[in-house]
Design goal:
Elements lengths: L12 H43 L7 H5 L60 E5 L1 H10 L5 E4 L14 E3 L2 E3 L1 H5 L6 E5 L10 H18 L4 E5 L6 H6 L5 H18 L2 E3 L2 H4 L19 H12 L12
Parallel strand pairs: 1-2, 1-5, 5-6, 6-7
Antiparallel strand pairs: 3-4
Length: about 325
Amino acid sequence: MRPTGQLYLPKRGGKRARARRRRTADIFLMLVMIALSLVAISAGAQAVTAWRAERTPMGETSTRETAGAPPEEVSSDERLGGDAGEPPDAEPSQAVREETGPAPSGAYDFSKPVPLSDPADTAYFDDAVFIGDSRTEGLFLNTGLSNAASLAHMGLMVDTVFTRPLFNVDGEKVPVIDALKTADFSKVYVMLGINETGWIYSSVFVQKYGELIGAIREIKPDAVIYIQAIMPVSQRVSDTHSYIKNAKISEYNQLLQRLAEEKQVYYIDTANAVADADGSLPEDAAPDGIHLARSYCQKWLEYLMAHTAPGEKGGAA
């Protein structure tokens, strides 16, 4: 007999607690197994990556990664207000040195700018090709220099002369160097560098410029090659522009003068033709402080005519 006055309750509380503990243990075990699985997957992926890295030859990385090459194309040179492109982010360990061509007869000192000579007439440019950016385009537009060939284009740089298809040859657009192969010329004037002042390493600029000189020599071994100094910009532009600075232009010109001596080509100090007393471009020389007005383009052309290579018609003795 159960004692009277007491309420009978079945002993169910203990079973429920045990069931909850089992479910909790099952869930915990499941989470542990999932975590272990994720760890195993991660380790496997790392092992596969390491295996692939061991099997990949070093030479399969891209040219831009290994050489830190300058960009292959820019859309403008600021007219020159545009972007000069991503500058190279790695300096080459060793600059490419090409064989210099034979020096012209005489003891000409290629370490110095071409001296003043008897002025030539415009016929001197009958067999000349001009390679340059939008400033050279302005030279042709503003002086009527129609008897020379122009391989000039806005935004052109010392690397894109090899890669950027710009000039129509037999119905197909080709880079400057390929177009030059089809030209009949004896002289080449090069004016490049203002777009490249945004590059990190000056050595890359000089290396690429040297490669251009070598390519011209390969096409026409006996061509007379003129490297023109990069003309300055106005002080206002130099003070406010993000990368075009007269100090950088001056640095590049010193490097170009040394390159001319190394390659045995002629260096023309065209910057001197238009620069003010302080070395900058006069404010009235260019509406935008960069691209020359008509009168200054004429000064540029007259300077070229009065500074020709020794032995050339009208050249210095």
